Amino acid sequence: MTACYRMAVMGWSPQDAQLEAVNFGCAAPDQLGFIQKFGRKLQQGDPGLPGYPREPLGSHSLTASERDETIAKAAVASGVTARCASPGSAPGQPTLAP
Fold this sequence. Notes:
Radius of gyration: 14 Å
């Protein structure tokens, strides 16, 4: 679960980590729920996760170029084209279209 690593070690926000997971095809409700729950545990300083997060959550902001690069890599790997996200998501946040 790369999203959990990005939050726990790299300081990504739960929102950025989940966006990347979705862009790489994570769609299983249990997996998405785990990412959200893990992010909440990190935010709350869960005693079961001593020493984490290593960097404050959100201390690394996903840049547009990083976001675009991960989306492009996922698109190439899956043969899918990038497009704008569905209504209700942040403007300019691309996701993958089937």
